[in-house]
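Trying the structure run again after the queue cleared.
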Amino acid sequence: MTLPAQNLLAEEASPYLQQHSGNPVHWRAWSPASLAEARALERPILLSVGYAACHWCHVMAHESFENNDVAAVMNRLFVNIKVDREERPDIDQIYMAALSSMGEQGGWPLTMFLTPDGKPFWGGTYFPREARYGRPGFVQVLEAVDKAWREKKESVNQSADGLTTHVEARLASAHPKAVLDRETLATLANGIDGMIDRELGGLRGAPKFPNAPFMHTLWLSWLRDGTTVHRDAVLLSLEKMLAGGIYDHIGGGLSRYSTDAEWLVPHFEKMLYDNAQLIRLCNWAYAASGNNLFRVRIEETVRWLLREMRVDGGAFAASLDADSEGEEGLFYTWGRDEIETALGYESSLFFKHFTLSSPHGWEGKPIIHQTDEQQTQSVVDRDRLIPLKEKLLAARDQRVGPGRDGKVLTDWNGLVIAALAEAGRALKRIDWIEAAEQAFAATASAGRDGRLPHSMLGAKKLFPALSSDYAAMTNAAISLFEATGTSNYADLAGQFIAQLDQWHRDDDNTGYYLTASDSTDVPIRIRGDVDEAVPSATGQIIEALVRLSSLTGDLDLQEKAWRAAEHAAGRAAHQAYGQAGIVNACALAIEPLKLVIVDSSENPQLVPVANRNPDPRRVEIVVPVGAEANRPTLPGGILPPTDKPGAWLCTGQACLPVITNPEDLERLLRRR
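Done. Tokens:
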């Protein structure tokens, strides 16, 4: 079977693939038909993996994929397949692991060469069209790979078989289960703490990423064990990144990473998942520290999400590009004269609170950031600065904006829904909870035969979902249940877990695969254990199972969570730094917390205490005084009395005595 000798990306549901639909390269999307074509032609596959907001993906596309001469070589020698890593993280993880196994550093664009049956045998990341940066030119690479394939096919196939076996053992094989141990979290947290930059926050060196899973590990360590140095590492990291150029001081929101150690020069793409996790971390940080900086940054980031990232129906788009008018960061950077023109005499107030810098190696306009003192003062003077930021935002909106990847990813939306629900509770923002409900409704209602899609773009939907989609939406549903008390969210969480069990559970009932059992185009069915910028699918699944079992009191579900955690811990034992999400989730499984509150609906005294003391280890159920229907059970099947206010905090199967005084509950829930 062969497909038409032309580019076939125009009708794809991915904006990233659509961006390449005008290339002279005969691109195919990843599909059974594309793989069948390679086998029929006995021609190797050139696999190119990227995403819409990726700067170097755009560079390689402009240099090579838009070039007729390069495209002619690609079309003659290979079956060319383009993958959006956000749409197909399963494919991305398989071939990124293969590249890593070759001893190469990963990144995007990922450029891999596969045998006709999809087995990897060589690859890299960005290749320039002409040899430079110490890298061979792309046409040289293409011709060298073709020569090796033609002249050493047997050797190449053997190499590909060995590499595939290695990747399968790394990503899909079974390992003996581990005994769940409290020390695992402490050991990992101490190791991460040893890598923290005590002056600048984050991990030492450059580039600097937010590293949310690591920050989560440190926070859990502080909550559980009182290790204040771990709390302080998170607070320092947040304060430093929120003062840096990686944060958009005019419009709100965090870029993906900074290229330097000072958080100053970002790659300017903004990702939905980074900002969802930023909101959660800042919510915890504000509750623990009382520092209004974190509340202000939550408000600014949520305002950006609602202004720039919502799509029709209320769900959220995936990302904003780094580039506009062909230049990275052009939309976000300012000359001093531009600010003075926009603000007039008020510019002196602006420059009192913000700094413009053009560090060595940066070729664009200056980047806005803050010193520590400026950041502290800007929180105090926030009301005076808001009108100035609004004027600059209006001026910026007249520029050509960066492209938006408008596809709705189910798992990423689950992350932002949970973040909005949690921050809305803590900061008394009903409008944020309502926005979370709208996004949840838009995402959950897009299913077919009870199954969620992984990705949506308008009317186009990509089925089937991944395990991360069901896990993230389960956690989102539980967060909305906690925020609203609407029992339907708890019911939907149970339905998502049922779909997860049906399509993703392994034959031994020890865990889950990332891809569904009826996915026909994956060369390896992987677990999804490895963290990226977000916790792994496995980590999110364990968290979802633990939280839902705590919420419902379902002992069978609790056993399922424990079994999945034990086996995941066994797989993560020798690579905990890459699987912090699993370690974090296992810590929840060891000591799940449940808070049941009976309180007055009209004048609650206990609920506000819980709301302003968020704890990622805890699920909460609120029951009105006098309620008889839908009463939750405490461990052991005990029904709490509802005739007067009270709060019961349970760890596993043991509960503390009832608390009726708000001050006592505050002391119990607040870790200092």
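Residues 239 and 293 are 8 Å apart (CA to CA). Worth checking whether this holds up in the mutant runs.
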